[in-house]
Amino acid sequence: MAGHVKPLPVPVILAAVNGDENALAAVVAHYQKYIRALATRPVKDEYGNEYLYVDEDMRLRLETKLIHSIVTSFKVLPV
User: Fold this and answer.
1) How many whole angstroms from its chain centre is CA 33?
2) Cα angle vertex 53, ends 51, 55, to 5°?
3) What is the structure's pLDDT at 78?
4) Distance of alpha carbon 7 from alpha carbon 12, whole angstroms
């Protein structure tokens, strides 16, 4: 099924919240396509042709904000 993404396992999320570097990398990798899509910008060349490119500064800012949010303010509610 196209477009279906498996959810992150809860232990990975909990480890990321506790600052585990491997878990944080797994979370960032999980959201990599979404982050790249958000950071994609159109640009026109001198001939008026429009291209899409990934704004690397924006991509890095989004990744940093994701990591910062996970480590500092992410709350896991009990079930």
Assistant:
1) 7
2) 145
3) 78
4) 11
